[in-house]
Amino acid sequence: MDTVDCVVVGAGVIGLAVARALSLRGLETVILESERQIGTATSSRNSEIIHAGIYYPQGSLKARACVEGRQALYAYCDARGIAHRRCGKMIVATHEGEIAELESLMAAAIANGVNDLIWLDSPQALKLEPALNCVAALLSPSTGILDTHAYMLSLQGEAEAHGAVLALGARFCGARRGPEGWAVSIEGEESPVLAARHIVNAAGLGAQAAAAAIEGMPAPHVPRRHLAKGVYFAYAGPTPFQRLIYPAPEPGGLGTHLTLDMGGQARFGPDVEWVEAIDYDVDPSRVAKFAQAASRFWPGLDPARLAPAYAGVRPKISGPGEPNADFLISGPAEHGLEGVVNLFGIESPGITASMTLASIVADKLLTAEHR
C-alpha cells in the first residue's frame, strides 16, 4: 500500500484548489473523484459569478473568504489567461418597498470591506441599462464572470505539475486509523489502496457521507445536509444588458437573476426549491414563473425565448426558514481527529472564495501537524 501526505476527496473547484495549495507546499497529494471527470456537480452547475462579497454577515467566513478570494481569483485569472470579465452587476429595487433591502445590502457590503458599491436612482440606473425597470439600484463594479471549467483545469494542471495525482472514477468509501496514518478505501477494492497522513473532505454534496465514513468522526461534527435545487432557463437571442441584473434577495438564494456567460449567452436563475434527493431535471412548466420574475426588472422580456437550460443543487447546512449558515471548515481542533479536515456547506460564493478556503485548509492541517 502506497503512502502519501494527503488525500483530497472531491475534484470540484474546492478540492482542486486545496490540492493545488497542498502540492505547492510540497505535500504529495492524491485527489479522489468518484465521477469520470472533474467538477461535474456543484462546480459546473452554477452561475459562474465572481462575487464581490455583498450579501454575507459581517465577520463570517463567507464574507472574509469572498472578499479575499475575489481579489486572488482575478489575479489568478489575469496571470494565467483564464477567460473572465469584470462586467459588474446591478441589484435592483423594482418598487419602493425594496429600497430598504438595498440600503441593508449596501451597509453589509461596506462592513465586509466592499467599498466600491454605487447607489443609483432610477434615472442613473436607466442611463446605464435603459431596458431596466427599477426605482433604485446598487452597482457593483467588482462583480464578474469567469469560465469555471477553464479555472478548474488550471488548478488541476498546476497541482499535477507539483506532483499531485488525480484519480477519476475513484469513489471514497472510508478511512480507518492504521500504522502509517489513515488507510483509505475506495469503491470496488477489497483492501485499502492508500495510506495518508492527511485527509481533506471536499466532497461537496457528498461531504456528509464521506465524513461519516471516516473512523471515529464524532457525529455531532457532521451537520445535516439540506438540498436546495435551483434551475436555469436560457434566453434565445440577444439581450439589451451589459451587466448582470439581480433582484433583491429571497429566502434561500439571491433571487432569479440575469447572468451572462463568456460567450454572451443570457440565462435566468436559479430559483430555490427544497428537495429530498439530488436530481438535475428542469421542468419546462416552470418557465411561466421565471418569465414573471424576470419581467419585473425587464418588462421587454419575450417569454417565448426562454428554454430549459440546466439545474444545480446547493449543498446547504441550513434548511427552510433558517438563517443561511456560514461555510464550515472543521479540522482537528474542532472534531479531534488528527489529520482530517471536513468542508461543509460550500455553496455560493464557493468559487469566488476557493483560493482563500484552500489556504485555510492547508493552514489547519499544517498547524495541527506542527503543534
Tell me about this structure.
By secondary structure, the chain is α+β, with helices and mostly antiparallel strands. It contains nine helices and 20 strands. The protein has helices at 13-24, 61-80, 99-111, 122-128, 148-161, 207-212, 287-295, 332-335, 350-369, and strands at 2-9, 29-33, 49-50, 84-85, 89-93, 118-121, 136-140, 144-146, 165-168, 172-178, 181-186, 194-201, 226-235, 244-247, 257-260, 266-269, 273-275, 306-316, 328-330, 340-344. The radius of gyration is 21 Å and the shape is elongated. The protein starts with a strand and ends with a helix.
Attribute tags:
371 residues, D-Amino Acid Oxidase, Chain A, domain 2, elongated, eight-stranded mixed β-sheet, 20 strands, five-stranded antiparallel β-sheet, 3 domains, 9 helices
Question: Number of folding domains?
Answer: 3
Residue runs with pLDDT of under 50 for 5 or more positions:
none
CATH superfamily of the largest domain: FAD/NAD(P)-binding domain
CATH topology of the largest domain, by name, is FAD/NAD(P)-binding domain
| Number of H/I helices | 9
In sequence order, what are the helices and strands, one letter per element?
Answer: EHEEHEEHEHEEHEEEEHEEEEEHEEHEH
Structural class: alpha+beta
Approximate strand percentage:
25-35%
- Which outline best applies? elongated
